[in-house]
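Title: [Solved] Protease complex subunit PrcB family protein 3D structure

Original question kept below for reference.
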Amino acid sequence: MKKVTLSFILALFATLILASCEEEQTPDTPRALELMGKSFSNSSGVPIPTSVGVGSNARLITHTVIQNGLYTLVEKRSVMTANSSPELNAIWAQHSTNPLDFPQVNLESETVIAVFSGIRSNSGYTLEVTKIWESNGKLVVGIKEKVESGVTLTVITNPNLWLKIPKTNLPIEVYFE
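Solution (posted by the thread starter after getting help):
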């Protein structure tokens, strides 16, 4: 009787785990983690949304992903930018207590954008940049929150994405897809 009960419980547990993995799925696309540290010119096929006030004179901005993580001390969805060392230090102090992961950037020629998605319920969430463009006196950053299909860990995560772009003082607006 104990073997039957144990087998039933294990089968039920496995079914519940697999069922929870099928809740949120997206098409397979390259993971943001694979893009880490590579520069590219935002040539994805994602259209520029007119709902965020982007005109026909939009200019794409190159960027580099400098860090993409699952854990941060920042618990709410937010975006922070840094053009100076004190600004970057303040953002990092909110993000992490680990000085070894501090991003290496030249703040005389680069601006840092840190995007935080907020608390998520499993390890399958990542953030990815779709495009960054300049239009109408502002920068617009397109961010896609991806959900991994398949088996993920049931653990609290706080996905975050750190980018560097050419130095700018323009206001930055983030568009979450």
